[in-house]
Amino acid sequence: MPELPRSVNYLALAIFAPVLILTGIAGFLVPAEYSLTSGAAPYNIFHIFFGGFGLLLVWMRKEIWLVVFNLGFGLVDLYQAVASFLHLFPEKYFLWTRVDDILHILIGMALIIIGGYGFLRRPMS
Q: How many domains does the chain have?
């Protein structure tokens, strides 16, 4: 049986989920004085957990869940940038840096565009 072409949401999450996991692991391994991003333990666990969840969704290959994850995580990323600037929850636990803020804006916007594209391209199985 020939393999179906992969959607942009599938490819994005297949790349992004392992990056999230590696980011979380690196946060535990790289000393704070050498890191440009937050190394707070709750923030690292957040990355590892959602990276693992994203990989599970990639493995399931249900387009609707890939789209929902990308849209949802994109919104969470944008919220984190806003929360950092406005000193909202979970700032005191995640200890974001300006580099985190920039990454959250860029990645958040990209994930929302990718997820929105997938949402508009229905039908999803």
A: 1
